[in-house]
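Researcher: Final request for today, and then I'll write up notes for the group meeting. The sequence and the SMILES for flavin mononucleotide follow.
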Amino acid sequence: MTEPRRQVLVAFATASGSTREIAERIGGRLRAVADVAMLPAGPGVELDRFDAFVIGSAVHDMAWLPPARGLAQRLAPVVRGRPVWFFSVAGIDPRGRTRTWMAHQEAARVARGLPGELHPRDHRLFGGVVRMDGVPLWGRLFYRLARQHPGDQRDWPAIDAWADEVAGALASSPLDAGSR
Ligand SMILES: Cc1cc2nc3c(=O)[nH]c(=O)nc-3n(C[C@H](O)[C@H](O)[C@H](O)COP(=O)(O)O)c2cc1C
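Model: Predicted protein-flavin mononucleotide complex:
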């Protein structure tokens, strides 16, 4: 007998769109192993019917955007062991040793603002699209010090590889019939 396909929620919060495109890319690859609902994070997103959750957000001021934080807060008390993955989309392109370290630090800061009870299987930080218009002086200085440049920092092979890791974990984890 074939197992029913896993129902996976890929939810995202974006200000300028780069996180949405990353979420779509991840969701597209997860469709190889699961039924995927791709939704903007928000209070109306239903959580009961999913077997697993991939939640991502743009990072603003070292934190997820409020709709993604709100979704994580709502999920925490009802997650009941269902697997969760987080991704963050930031102005840091994690390629390169110093920037990999910075990306880890930034992901850790972001995680401190999220419910500890969720215990994500992984939390990966990807570079997004950096626009300098509207960035305050301290932000520009930070970018300069971090040797970052504006523009599209998205590392699509890394995003695909991460999505495939999630897909592999989903495909090999047993469906918990009691979770839905
Ligand atoms: C107001 C503002 C604050 C930001 N704060 C941070 C930050 O604290 N850390 C960081 O790494 N990137 C920061 N960024 C860069 C964004 O995370 C990056 O541009 C990301 O790709 C935005 O995603 P989006 O296109 O989905 O909105 C900030 C960008 C803006 C506009």
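Model: The chain has one domain: 6-172. The beta strands are 6-13, 34-40, 52-60, 63-64, 84-90, 122-127, 129-130, 151-152.
Researcher: Thanks, that's everything.
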